[in-house]
């Protein structure tokens, strides 16, 4: 392919791309009066992932005033209620398709109210089958039949946002039912209220350990958590309110185990027995039941020793710490009985 043919091919390709952009669907801009403008459109692109309405006061500099939450819907609309103070206002629609390609429509100004003559269709319910009547017009004794297009006005929160032809409304209704949880209801014949679905906020149970928050669990799953704690642990859960619970940790009672080094014998005397080969490395500190130090044996003279009760003022429990050099070998207690 020589340079001239390549240039012609590229020009044809550019022309086709420009033509494809101009082939984008049109949209309707209508003056609703009282400072409101309705912008409605038909979207033939299921792959559309962004659709925005842009406004300008000079048809050159545009800014986005609305982004559709469901840009893939086949039909939708928006009511501009914050009109700038300008002699004329222009609107255009910005499309972004899957893959990153994007397009702008041509700009439009609102149609004057006097030029808007779409009759409102009357329907009995949202899902009713709607027939489009025909009107006969007689002229010069010749009867011709023409079709009068009817429209359905869509409201949201009591505000009219756009209007659709019967066929466009059917597509809009079917798409809304399949792709969202929104609902439609009849206000009066020809007027439909669009109620967006608002999910119920999640409720949580806060589980505390004393005054510290341990975990927050969604209310429907709390019973499973409580049963798991009850069945697999010895902890206890107390329900304070619907949304607050307290977890009490199980604390096992300590089980005392007599020392093999320092213990009382059958006669009630205190026995001290440490390994013979290095007994001189051991030392002992004795404490009363309140933890106050009584006395120390800093160096054992024998590996076995029997201490008289006279070394202790009274019967009861006594604590001790046994060290080898400076390493704590054991911390335990013993009980001295009355004579």
Would you kindly provide a brief summary of this structure?
By secondary structure, this protein is mainly β.
Biggest beta sheet summary = 4 strands, antiparallel
The topology string of helices and strands comes to HEEEEEEEEEEEHEEEEHEEEEEEEEE
Separation, N- and C-terminal Cα atoms? 122 Å
**Anisotropy-based shape:** rod-shaped
Can you identify the CATH superfamily of the largest domain?
A: Immunoglobulins
Report strand order across the widest sheet: 4-3-6-7
Classify the beta-strand content into a percent band.
Answer: 35-45%
What's the total count of β strands? 24
**Which regions have little confidence, pLDDT < 50, spanning 5+ residues?**
5-23, 117-139
Plain-language structure description:
With 339 residues, this protein is mainly beta. The protein folds into three domains: 21-195, Immunoglobulins (Immunoglobulin-like, Sandwich), CATH 2.60.40; 204-248, no CATH class; 262-336, Immunoglobulins (Immunoglobulin-like). The chain has helices spanning 3-22, 166-179, 219-232; strands at 27-33, 36-42, 48-56, 63-67, 75-80, 90-97, 102-104, 134-139, 142-147, 151-156, 159-165, 183-188, 191-195, 204-209, 212-218, 236-241, 244-248, 262-264, 270-273, 282-287, 293-297, 304-307, 316-324, 327-336. The strands form seven sheets. The chain has a four-stranded antiparallel beta sheet with strand order 4-3-6-7, with no helix packed on it. The chain has a four-stranded mixed beta sheet with strand order 11-10-13-12, covered by helices on one side. It is rod-shaped and about 115 Å long.
